[in-house]
From TrEMBL:
Gene3D superfamilies recorded: Winged helix-like DNA-binding domain superfamily/Winged helix DNA-binding domain
Location of the HTH hxlR-type domain: 15-118
Protein name according to UniProt: HxlR family transcriptional regulator
Native organism: Mucilaginibacter pedocola
Keywords: DNA-binding, Transcription, Transcription regulation
A GO molecular-function descriptor: DNA binding
One Pfam family of this chain: HxlR
InterPro entries for the chain: HTH_HxlR, WH-like_DNA-bd_sf, WH_DNA-bd_sf
Length: 125
């Protein structure tokens, strides 16, 4: 972690604005599954069962709700094809690609955290 010395602290208004921004982002992307669903669909468009299979542990009810929420917030596009039976494909919207840096940073942080936990467990053994 980079420590910067002699840097001025942000003022109260700047902190409040940053906090509002973070809370807005968390409100839209809340929950255990939304970012994972977006990441899955950024890699490739998928059908419902493909998403559920990739995200082991998510129930169909929760997946359906999360997909609706993501569609309402313009993160995914739901395409319906008039086949028998009807085929529905979910894909990431252009807007979801704006999360690319966030997802990369979360992935990096998650890997660092996992390694830290492993090292901590080794020390305890």
């Amino acid at each position: 972690m980079k420590v910067v010395k002699n840097e001025e602290l942000p003022d109260k208004d700047m902190c409040a604005g940053s906090l509002r921004n973070v809370l807005d982002a968390l409100y839209v992307l809340n929950g255990k599954w939304k970012l994972a669903i977006i990441l899955s669909l950024v890699q490739a468009a998928k059908r419902f069962n493909e998403i559920q299979h990739e995200l082991a542990g998510i129930s169909p009810k929760v997946l359906a709700k999360e997909l609706k929420d993501l569609e309402l917030n313009d993160f995914i596009i739901r395409k319906v094809f008039p086949t028998t039976p009807v085929t529905i494909i979910y894909e990431a919207s252009e807007y979801s690609h704006t999360l690319k840096n966030v997802l990369a940073e979360l992935s990096n942080w998650g890997a660092q955290h996992r390694e830290r936990i492993k090292q901590s467990m080794r020390k305890q053994s």
